[in-house]
Amino acid sequence: MKKVNKIFGFAAVLLCGLFFAGCSEEDSKVLDDLTGPSDTWCTMPVTYASENGSASTTLNVSFYYASKEVKPNGLSTGLRSDIESIPEGSISVLVTLGSVETNFLLKTLAKTQYLFKSFGSVSELTSESNTPYEYSNMKLFWKAIYLKNRDELSKDQNKGIPAQLQSSTQTAYSSVSNLENFSWKRLLATYLLNNLE
User: Fold this and answer.
1) pLDDT-derived band of residue 16, with 50, 70 and 90 as boundaries?
2) Distance (Å) of CA 17 to CA 5, 36, 146, 173
3) Rounded to an integer, what distance in angstroms lies between the CA atom of residue 138 and that of residue 66?
């Protein structure tokens, strides 16, 4: 509950500022961007290490909170056809190799491969990450993730679909489902979701 209160506290301060300055649609967008932009790929580097810390791999982890459903539309920059959709209200996570030079753990992961998963509900995401069930909806959960990692996630943001998920590069990039030494639960719990402040 303390985590949720911190989120609301932060948002309340911003809302007070907007109230006294006069709130417009543009102000509302600024608030949304500060507390977790929707329909935007927010990427951060993560050092994914083995349990004993003896080996690690630098990954790029991208989050996307969908305020509306995204489906393949036939355009070259649209979603690739082997992904049915990114559901409305979901949080999607794209994982790619950050640097070949620092890949000492996930040695079978190539630059042309990626891991991708859409989480459609709070219970699904908390179950996958072993995070306490404290969030009433996915938008609030996304804001908690964003605020915890804002320094990193605010640096690399893009409205366009990442190259790995684009229709035009469907033959250039391939999805990986079973990757040796990789665990969604471990990635999400250890680096991103547990101990949200």
Assistant:
1) very low
2) 18, 18, 20, 45
3) 10
